[in-house]
Amino acid sequence: MNSVxxxxxxxxxxxxxxxxxxxxxxxARDPRRLRALPGVRFGKLLGTGTGTGFGxxxxxxxxxxxxVAWDDPRHADGFAAGxxxxxxxxxxxxxARLDLRPVSSRxxxxxxxxxxxxxxxxxxxxxLALTRARLRPARAVTFWRAVPPVxxxxxxxxxxxxxxxxGEAPIGWQGTVSVWRESADLMDFAxxxxxxxxAIMQTPVRRWYAEELFARFEIGDVTGDRSxxxxxxxxxxxxxxxxTA
Length: 245
Fold this sequence. Notes:
- This protein is an alpha+beta fold.
- It has helices spanning about 20-35, 75, 85-90, 140-155, 185-190, 195-205, and strands spanning about 5-15, 40-50, 60-70, 95-105, 125-135, 160-165, 175-180, 210-225, 240-245.
- It contains 6 helices and 9 strands; from the N terminus they run βαββααββαββααββ.
- Helix 1 runs antiparallel to helix 3, helix 4 packs antiparallel against helix 6 (about 195-205) and helix 5 crosses helix 6 (about 195-205).
- About 35% of the residues are buried.
């Protein structure tokens, strides 16, 4: 799967705590239904976290997400009215959707290259970074010890608009979503902040991951309630189209 998908969408829902049993039922039932939707080449249902850590204590049981790569952008238009979108819409108190264009992607997810081999190039306006890894069980403790300095640096990073953790399971399947005002802000944090640079250098030595992926996307559209993403209203960026879902 080396071709670049026509569109990638990230759907995020906020649910009340009383709806947790229904949300967990959706997480069990909907992955197969998501992948069976017309035009879906890759789809994952994800739990989320605050992004300050990567253990069970970081889990946010009131926010859930779906990441979908579409062969044809037209198929994405019907997601909210489809079986998965409707099921989550019935229990959600708020929702947001981001339309994404892959700019770069390195690594694998579940043994595939979900975002193909993007040509890269310059981007304008906000970008989204996605990191995802499957931890080696024997390396998990050393990984968790390395997380706090990076997480603390991320909270105060210039240009950061929003960030949260994502995962397919509470332990072992880790990821982050971060939104940046522009690509230069992301690059400065990734390669110039000593905390993150040190973590990058330790990765091949510590062999934390059995599988890993890093992808960068240009944000084309944001619809719905940005607060679901942890995107503060004061951080609204005029270069991103914004509409109400």
